[in-house]
Design brief:
Layout: H1 4-98, H2 104-124, H3 130-143, H4 151-168, E1 172-181, E2 184-193, E3 197-202, E4 208-212, E5 217-220, H5 226-236, H6 250-254
Antiparallel strand pairs: 1-2, 2-3, 3-4, 4-5
Length: 255
C-alpha cells in the first residue's frame, strides 16, 4: 500500500478531533455555569429561610409586646383613677387647711378622724413595710394632743402621711424582710407592685408567693413565677434596666 494513504487518513482525522474538542469546551462551560447558578440559588434559598425565621420571631415578639402593653395600659388606668381620687381628696383637705384658724373647733376632731381613717386604711391594705407605716401612724397619734404644735403643722403632717400612702400606689419597690411562717419567720425578698400586688421570694429563689387580700394570707405561686419575680426585684433595686414584665396578677394567681 502506498505510504501516502496513512498520511491522508491522519490528515482527515486530526480536523475531526479538533472540532470535537472545540464543541466539548462550551458544554463544560455550560455545566460549570449551571452548577454555579444552582449553588447561588441554594444560598439564596437559605438566606430567604433565615429571613422567614427572623420575621416569624419578630412577629411573635411584637404580639407579646402588644399583650404586655394592653396589660400595662389597664394597670395605668387603674392607677390613674386611684391617683385622681386621692388627689381630689387631698385638694379638699387643702381647701379646709386654708381656713383652719377660723374653724379650729371643727378641725381638731376632723384631724383625729383623718388619723383614724388612715389607720384603718393601712390595716386593710397590703401588708408591706409594716414597721415604717406603723411608726408613722403612731407619730401622728402622739402629735394630735400636743399643745406646743400648731394646728397647721399637725394638719401638714397628716397630709404628708396621706401623700406618702398615695405615692405607694405608683411605685415598684423591693426590700428584704421577714416572712411570718408557722413557728417563726424566714428572710425573703419582698416586691410591691403599686397597691395591686405584693410578692415574696426566698433568698435562694426556690419559692415565690403572693398576698391574697381575700383570704388575708400568703399563698405559694407555681414555679413559672420565679424567673419574672427575680427580674422584677432586680429592676426595682435598679440593678437591671427596666423591661416588660409578665408577673401573675390577682386573677391569674387565683387560678
Amino acid at each position: 500500500m502506498p505510504s501516502f494513504i496513512p498520511r491522508l487518513l491522519a490528515a482527515a482525522v486530526l480536523p475531526c478531533l479538533y472540532a470535537a474538542s472545540l464543541s466539548a469546551a462550551p458544554l463544560d462551560a455550560a455545566l460549570d455555569e449551571s452548577e454555579r447558578l444552582a449553588a447561588e440559588a441554594k444560598a439564596s434559598q437559605a438566606r430567604i429561610d433565615q429571613l422567614d425565621d427572623a420575621t416569624r420571631e419578630m412577629l411573635n415578639e411584637y404580639r407579646n409586646a402588644l399583650q404586655q402593653a394592653e396589660a400595662l395600659k389597664a394597670y395605668n388606668n387603674q392607677l390613674q383613677a386611684l391617683t385622681a381620687a386621692q388627689r381630689k381628696e387631698l385638694e379638699g383637705f387643702q381647701r379646709q387647711l386654708d381656713g383652719i384658724e377660723r374653724t379650729q373647733e371643727a378641725v381638731t376632731p376632723q384631724m383625729g378622724q383623718m388619723v383614724e381613717v388612715l389607720g384603718e386604711f393601712i390595716a386593710a391594705d397590703l401588708p408591706f413595710l409594716p414597721d415604717e407605716r406603723a411608726d408613722r401612724l403612731a407619730g401622728l397619734q402622739d402629735l394630735l394632743p400636743r399643745a406646743d404644735v400648731s394646728l397647721a403643722e399637725k394638719y401638714r403632717r397628716i397630709l404628708e402621711a396621706y401623700q406618702i400612702e398615695s405615692d405607694y400606689g405608683r411605685t415598684l419597690e423591693a426590700w428584704r424582710g421577714e416572712l411570718p411562717i408557722e413557728g417563726g419567720s424566714r428572710s425573703v425578698e419582698f416586691l410591691r407592685l403599686g397597691r395591686v400586688m405584693l410578692y415574696y421570694q426566698t433568698l435562694d429563689a426556690h419559692e415565690s408567693g403572693w398576698w391574697n387580700p381575700q383570704t388575708r394570707s400568703w399563698q405559694v405561686l407555681d414555679g413559672g413565677a420565679r424567673r419574672p419575680l427575680t427580674q422584677a426585684i432586680a429592676i426595682a433595686r435598679q440593678q437591671q434596666a427596666p423591661a416588660y414584665l409578665h408577673l401573675p396578677l390577682a386573677k391569674e394567681a387565683v387560678q
